[in-house]
Amino acid sequence: MEEVLADTDKRMEKSVEALQSDLVNIRTGRASPSLVERLQVEYYGTDIPLNQIATISVPEPRLLVIRPYDPSSLGDIERAILKSELGLTPANDGKVIRLSIPRLTEERRVELVKMVQKRVEEARIAVRNCRRDGLQELKDLEKEKLISEDDFYRYKDKMQELTDGRIEEIDEIGAAKEKQIMEV
Global pTM? Predict the structure, then answer.
């Protein structure tokens, strides 16, 4: 039973980590390499994260410079940036790609907050799915008479506490990102 609880907790933790890495990619008006480093670029028929085929630097607070290791991949990188949800237009000079990060309009901030809320809800759903799977495992143990009914309900309550804690953590992460986006 403790194993089931630990396994469920581990899967819930992965959902929270996935949300955090997902929210890093949503821009807040400042240039940050994390904005594009996980962007998938089709390179010789394979999708590869941008940070594996190029260096990303921030020479100014509102500018990203992407310097590919292979100059022939400039077009692929440019296409990946244009296809992404970032809303940025790359400037290609033949050697590097420059991404100017414009100031966010109020309208764009609201759109980004809605996107954050959608991702937060997806993370909540993932955590609840982990709880459902964990409860199913406990039910199976009870059906096989490996645990008593009292044990089942005791661990069911522990599973709910675990779920509530993770959902609270997800809500805090979402609220912090929304606050960061709405800062002018």
Answer: 0.70
